[in-house]
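Lab notebook, bench 4. Still working through the backlog of constructs that have no structural model yet. Next entry is a single chain of 267 residues. Request: give me the structure tokens for it.
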Amino acid sequence: MKEMGVALAQFQSTPSKEENLEKISKIISRLSGISLVVFPEFTDLLAPSDISRERLYELAEYDDSQFIRGVRRVAMEHGIWVAVGVYERSDEFPRVHSSVYIIGADGELRAKYRKSHLFDALGHKESDWLKPGDEPPLMVDVEGFRLGVIVCYEMRFPELARYVALSGADALIVPSAWYRGYNKEEQWLTLTKARALENTMYVLTSNQIGNTFAGISVAVDPAGVMVARATEEEGAVEARVDQGRISRVRAALPLLEQRRPELYQYK
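Model written out:
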């Protein structure tokens, strides 16, 4: 059984892409013995509250944008996989996607996931300016580990995490920009632990901090044990995905094997 080191970056985006890219580089340069670093949703840009949809579309990323090229360069220089959440141009001007780019340690774009469930709740309406993706959670292989990817609000949909678990995932990666608010921090911790425990897999979250966001970047193991948690500051926390731990937990708690889906198909 193998282990993989993962760093979860707790990040405060600014309106300057150049500054955000420099912060990405500094965080990665401090890491050692890490195979993958995860950055939050909207790492590329803190969009001002009064920005027009047209201007945001103009600023949003695409596969060969300067910001994405910069992340690819940093990943290649340090030989590390990078998962980074960004605004991405859609084919439906002026809406954009909330996307996660997966960059290999060789600097190549390996995969991309577009958030499919938008935060139209609690007084927010992301669908006014975001276009949802239409694909299931991303599954990607990183150095012998199977990882699933969803984004932020999608943690509230247990079907997505279960899809990832049934697709053979060792861990669920969740770049996020979780808003502060009454009981929101407690909700986040409850959701991360539940998604890990009910699927007996790691849940690894990277969150925006500062501005209007709550932080609380955490790593939870397959038994629902929190094994790493960020402070109230920017930085990165490290965790290890241990396939032996997954096997032991699943032997003791064989939830996935004990499912009886024929009894609870949706009508």
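Notes after review: The chain has seven helices and 14 strands. The radius of gyration is 18 Å. Flag for follow-up if needed.
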